[in-house]
Amino acid sequence: MQKTLTTTALATLLALGATAASAEIRIGASVSATGPAAFLGDPEAKTLEMLVEQINENGGINGEEIALTLYDDGGDPNKARTFATRLIEDDEVVAIIGGSTTGTSMSILSVSEDNEIPFISLAGAIEIIDPVKPFTFKTPHTDRMACQKIFEDMQKRQITTIGMISGTDGFGASMQAQCKDVVGEYGITVAADETYNPTDADMTTQLTKIRNTEGVQAVLNPGFGQGPSIVTRNYRQLAIDLPLYQSHGVASDGFIELAGAEAAEGVRLPGTALLIADQLGADDPQKPVVDAYKTAFEEKTGTSVGTFGGYAHDAFLILTDAITRAGSAEPQAIRDAIESTSGLAGTTGIYNMSAEDHLGLDLSAFRMLEIKGGEWTVVE
Amino acid sequence: MAELLQFLFSGVTVGAVYALVALGFTIIYNASDVVNFAQGEFVMLGGMLTFVCHAAGLPLPLAALIAIVVTSAIGVAMNKLAIEPARGAPVVSLIIITIGASIFIRGGAQLLFGKQIHSFPAFSGDTPLRIGGATILPQSLWVIGGAVVVFVGLWLFFTRTLTGRAVLATSNNRLAAQLVGINTGFVMTLSFALSAGIGALAGVLATPITLTSYDVGLAFALKGFAAAMLGGMGNPKGALAGGFLLGLIEALTAGYLSSQYKDAAAFVVILLVLFFMPQGLFGAKSTERV
Amino acid sequence: MKISAKSATLLVLVVLVALSPMLFPSGYYYRVGALIFVNAIAVTGIVILTGYAGQISLGHAGFAGIGAYACALAPVHLGLHPALALVLGAAISAVLAFLVGRPILRLKGYYLGVATLGFGILVSMVLNNERQLTGGPDGMEVPELGLRGLLRDAGIDLTNGQFWYFLCGIILILAAWLALNLFNSPTGRALRALHGSEVAARTVGVDVARLKLQAFVISAVYASVSGSLLALQNKFITPDVAGFMHSIEMVTMAVLGGVGSVLGAIFGAAVLTLLPQVLTVFAEYEQLVLGLVMMLVMIFLPQGLLPSILRKVRGKDE
């Protein structure tokens, strides 16, 4: 009895697998469109779908249409690995974009490396591309770079002692560790190191401890989701008048809205060109691409653009650029072409890949932003 | 001193939210011995629906009222469609049903409302009140007040009203309750409506502090469940005490020990309490029926 | 000829594991098969705990986490072979279950639920917070098991997917065999006859406390082995494996399939592992459908999917 049932189930799977065929250039994606990392994956998924639509309307690449197979791994590395296997073995894609989180990216890359399929990750951790793996690339600047950018700014303000309050989610914990790793190079000490759960409702306890720590001159909050908004509100509630730094995890207009313009006043964070599209100089090489993406995304989804959707945009841009230059959709050719990406302006920065650098961004990709009167402004 | 006071304020604020969720668990449990793991989704719906109505231009009190009424209706529907048909099922099955309901509601909310985080303005502004060098938001007082009012209301309901006693009687012995003329179907409907309504109220009161999105329910349900069990399931006094205790343990652990292990401390306390008092702090002794 | 339920169950399993690959159009199906088996191992443990001893656990993923991280950590820090690390993880889980089980198994119903929940959350919290050791929420890499290379040297060349499919399949059959032996033991029969009523069992002289503890320890070992296999197969592990949702998933698979029978629970594991794969086409509705399925099965097929289906089939035959 259950043999027939299992067979039915398998047959269903079979039928579903078969429908994915018959396209020209097959690209796969596995992102965390739901689950705890949906802040990352949701805009990424929407961005990819939108871009594929756009490119196909304009005649595809080299005359071939793109077929995107997109799976939602819910932020679960186990599912991500299954979907990576499915994309490669069953959907027969030539390249994979995805891995919204470090965990899912690490799962996908072990499959894609084994099968020699190029993979562009959308996650922050440096482990993904260091050491360099032949088929693995990534678009977001590393968390370490965000820390460096913040500490550079602190140095300029003569800040030498700080307190940190980090989310215990993957994003916050990873950045917390990276920041503590490099902080010494900037002559800054972390005098207080507190954490909160991403679902916590009140962080006044941790902030009170930081405030009462001797010598703290500024506070840094690595985290994403609602946590940083609550931290910012509590910060004002406690009337702490030290500079507050947030991370690129909340670099979107939604953050100002949730924290409230008043509470967010003076908050600094390392962001990308996306947030200040209207302030970019006409000669800025990122201006056209940022404007185009921002307009299209906001028109399509009705939500404001954020850094994370930008990562997916850039991954897709790098991939399509590579396929165009390679003039071929063979995985090996695509890989080689991605590695020779140079001077490609994305929303996050200008990409220059090489055999030693599978990220291709430097610190200049980040811009230190400050919230003034509910708007993003560039700190000079 | 000011530091301790600030920790206590934080603990009481969070504790009041837990207590409100725990109180919601109490009524359904009393009427039917079901622990409703979808209780957290009622909290989410309360906050989310208020946001949606408010964003659509309705004044905040009206938006909140609509949210509470709609959520109550969803609670009643859940009872009629999912709980009543499975009466007499073992505890595990009921857990799965209510978790299924919670996943279902969350999935629906995700489709209807999207995945954005939302909030709406605090009822009495954002200017913190200063007391002895510590600060507390006016909205925290709303949540604490809400928890206390709901507690008193439930206590009066269960001890002073005929309907409330009917609820307790239904829980003790459904058949006997029917025999003495209690409309047990009505009791069930009422308790789901009340539970869902209280959950929604928790969402309405807490959202300006905690913010809301389609997936906040699970965290509320877990903490509320833990608080209710700590206090002793089924007892409003236990729910209130359990909620505040849990919030205070978390805040004081974060303040004096480690913010990383504050939730761990809460669960260690729960395990210890259950070890010495298997029915929770205020739980009634029960005997197993053969 | 009449064959026992035990032999029938094992026969069905062996046939399924051995013959299903004939229907696989691509390597991806081996991966899904292996995942079903890994889940089924943990779920068989839940059958022992819930179906056999009548106890609830909302924290068994904690043991899966211990098994998984034993395979990630022991080879690096203790120089153990990953296969031995799996055994070590199982041993740690057993000892921990023994220590934790004694106090918390005195609790009943929901109180046991919250206590096991607390245990699971504590484990996942340690895995999340001890970043130096576990890599925190980002997870850590797990060393290669290395067995596939040995097989290749012995002349059996399997793809990675095939290797894990058959390895997990064989371990599942072993796990099911052990569970069935327990079911058919005298105490097992007595318990089933009494429908898990503790008071009744005690009056006929069953040492209920010992039995519950035994079931708890065995099911912990099952969960641990399942976690280890998952880690070794994925070569990467994150604390999600110990998370609350994973605990719930285990219980749901068992109850949905039919917590009273080993085969039923394995069937439940198969259905819930396949569901998200089938639903990718309607990814937006996945949660909605999953919740609906859970409620509908429990309401209309309270014995679980497989027993209810079997009963229907038999009813028609007669």
UniProtKB/TrEMBL annotation, chain A:
UniProt xrefs under SUPFAM superfamilies: Periplasmic binding protein-like I
All copies of domain Leucine-binding protein, residue ranges: 24-360
Pfam families tied to this protein: Peripla_BP_6
Gene3D superfamilies named in the record: 3.40.50.2300
Signal sequence extent: 1-23
Keywords: Amino-acid transport, Signal, Transport
Entry keyword annotation includes Transport: yes
Keyword Nucleus set for record: no
UniProt superkingdom: Bacteria
UniProt record similarity statement: Belongs to the leucine-binding protein family.
PANTHER family: BLR7848 PROTEIN (PTHR30483:SF38), LEUCINE-SPECIFIC-BINDING PROTEIN (PTHR30483)
Protein name: ABC transporter substrate-binding protein
Source species taxonomy: Bacteria, Pseudomonadati, Pseudomonadota, Alphaproteobacteria, Rhodobacterales
UniProtKB/TrEMBL annotation, chain B:
Keyword field: Amino-acid transport, Cell membrane, Membrane, Transmembrane, Transmembrane helix, Transport
Lipid bilayer topology: Multi-pass membrane protein
Keyword Cell membrane annotated: yes
Keyword field contains Hydrolase: no
Transmembrane segments: 7-29, 49-76, 88-105, 140-158, 179-205, 238-258, 264-284
Compartments reported by the entry: Cell membrane
A Pfam family per the record: BPD_transp_2
Entries under InterPro entries matching the protein: ABC_transp_permease (IPR001851), BCAA_transport_permease (IPR052157)
Similarity section: Belongs to the binding-protein-dependent transport system permease family. LivHM subfamily.
The name this protein goes by in its record: Branched-chain amino acid ABC transporter permease
Top-level taxonomy: Bacteria, Pseudomonadati, Pseudomonadota, Alphaproteobacteria, Rhodobacterales
From TrEMBL, chain C:
Location within or outside the cell: Cell membrane
Top-level taxon of origin: Bacteria
Name of the protein described by the UniProt record: Branched-chain amino acid ABC transporter permease
UniProtKB keywords: Cell membrane, Membrane, Transmembrane, Transmembrane helix
Organism: Paracoccus aerius
Short name of one Pfam family: BPD_transp_2
Topological type in the membrane: Multi-pass membrane protein
InterPro entries to which the protein is assigned, alphabetical: ABC_transp_permease, LivM-like
Transmembrane spans: 35-54, 61-78, 84-102, 109-127, 163-183, 254-275, 287-306
